[in-house]
Design goal:
mainly alpha, globular
Length: 477
């Protein structure tokens, strides 16, 4: 890769630049709907209290420990599908979906069962606050039941992204997230309480909206209601993807949901997905322990960290959409034996991610006090939240490189190097330093967040070096 200044300002290839945007935009919009869902979720739970917010924070990241492996189903399927698309082997695309679904269903069932059965032990290990523990247990149990459906949904998502039908990703994701938000409001507060809740909001009196929940007479379930809403939305997401896959264009042209187990295709998907799945699980465990360290500092600091992480998703999920599109183009161009265009796709992907994440980063740095009141009305959370948000503002520029190239390398079939490198950085350096600075040396949340910024910066440098090295161009998928 050439490091000329104009490559970072002007598109290297305008056609690829536009194609990347065309593929990424539906994914970005879908991911933004997910951001909105998470923001609304935290904003609603935040109205319940500090303990409830901390419970959702720890329960949520514990669930993502399991979902992390399921997320790799998407990568495995998408990488094989996009490569076959570039080779002109449309039947191979459908075969990848079919075997990806087998992998996702079996893995998802096992992961759901393990998580559900170990919920009590895991929550009690991670939390000490007797007020937070029972709330987190209820939230996590429902979340683990969702994992099976989420894993199946990721396999479908990898197929549709791989054949460049990212609009389906957008439609399914937006509808599922709208359903989640609707159910969140109903199940958390109950239909009877909504007129009062909506009469006093940051945007004024909107009590007239309460009528939308009246016909179903939702019970007031608090934190458990938020978890039930997510479970129902996850089931619908998998069903909606299935209905799309049954459309004639995918059944006839690609052979979707036709044909059974193929040992070689299954092996290739597993070979790509497993390192990334272990990476996702390992990294999520790292963040569980990061939250544990923050919890050792205090419940207030844990609530601040949860708010900051949810806000952060508003910037990195759009970049995840860019990365998804980049992975598809990299895989497709390698299938066409055009490594130069695959490399250019990486460059343009980083450029688009810088646009999205950089913009959000600037907003985090300049206007933290304007952003935070949307998530909490507790004045004790605002000041430490300002610091965390400004650190995240700087991190956005580093994460734009790290995230985009991580996706791009996975599109080429290179999942082992990023997994090994991130595990070393996270476990050998980040966690020990985080514990020392936050707890032992007494720097609290300040020390922990500076360590987080350093972790992302080092990882970004590592994946950038791997992309420049170029060995990914010769990986067979």
């Amino acid at each position: 890769m050439k490091y000329r200044l104009h490559h970072f300002i002007y598109p290297t290839d305008k056609k690829i630049f536009r194609r990347l945007f065309y593929l990424a935009l539906p994914v970005v919009l879908g991911n933004m709907s997910r951001v909105l869902m998470n923001i609304v979720d935290v904003a609603l739970v935040g109205r319940l209290g500090r303990e409830e917010l901390a419970a959702v924070a720890m329960g949520g990241i514990l669930i993502w420990t399991i979902i992390g492996f399921a997320l790799a189903m998407r990568t495995g399927v998408q990488t094989v599908v996009s490569r076959r698309l570039g080779e002109g082997d449309y039947h191979g695309c459908g075969l990848a979906l079919n075997n990806g679904l087998i992998f996702a269903a079996v893995s998802g069932l096992i992961l759901s069962a393990i998580g559900y059965l170990l919920t009590e032990q895991l929550i009690n290990f991670l939390l000490d606050d007797p007020k937070v523990i029972p709330l987190a247990e209820v939230y996590a149990r429902w979340g683990f039941l969702s994992v099976f459906f989420i894993a199946v949904g990721f396999a479908f998502q990898g197929f549709f992204n791989g054949v460049e039908k990212t609009r389906i990703h957008m439609q399914v994701t937006i509808l599922a997230n709208l359903l989640n938000v609707y159910l969140d409001v109903g199940f958390i507060f109950g239909s009877a309480n909504l007129p009062r809740l909506f009469s006093n909001t940051p945007i004024g009196d909107i009590s007239w909206l309460a009528g939308l929940w009246t016909p179903f007479n939702f019970p007031e379930l608090g934190v458990e209601g938020a978890a039930i809403a997510t479970f129902i939305a996850s089931v619908w997401l998998a069903i909606h993807y299935l209905l799309n896959a049954l459309m004639p264009i995918f059944r006839k042209e690609f052979g979707a949901l036709r044909g059974g187990f193929d040992r070689e295709v299954f092996r290739r998907i597993a070979q790509i997905a497993t390192p990334q799945g272990l990476q996702e699980v390992g990294v999520t465990i790292v963040f569980v322990l990061f939250f544990k360290i923050i919890a050792m500092v205090g419940t207030l600091e844990l609530a601040v960290t949860q708010i900051a992480f949810v806000i952060m998703q508003a910037s990195f999920l759009p970049a995840a959409g860019i990365g998804t599109a980049c992975a598809t183009l990299v895989g497709k161009y390698l299938g066409e034996k055009n490594a130069d265009r695959a490399e250019i796709s990486m460059i343009e992907g980083v450029r688009w991610s810088m646009i999205f994440m950089g913009t959000m980063g600037i907003l985090f740095i300049l206007f933290p006090r304007s952003i935070l009141p949307f998530f909490t009305n507790d004045p004790d959370l605002i000041e430490p939240g300002v610091f965390a948000l400004r650190v995240l503002g700087v991190v956005q520029f580093l994460d734009a490189v790290a995230m985009t190239l991580w996706y791009a390398l996975s599109g080429a079939g290179e999942t082992k190097f990023p997994a090994v490198v991130e595990m070393i950085i996270a476990w050998v350096f980040f966690l020990p330093l985080c514990y020392l600075t936050a707890v032992v040396w007494g720097y609290g949340i300040t020390g922990a967040w500076y360590c987080f910024a350093g972790y992302i910066g080092v990882y970004a440098a590592a994946v950038a070096w791997k992309a420049i090295e170029g060995k990914w161009k010769h990986i067979e998928v």
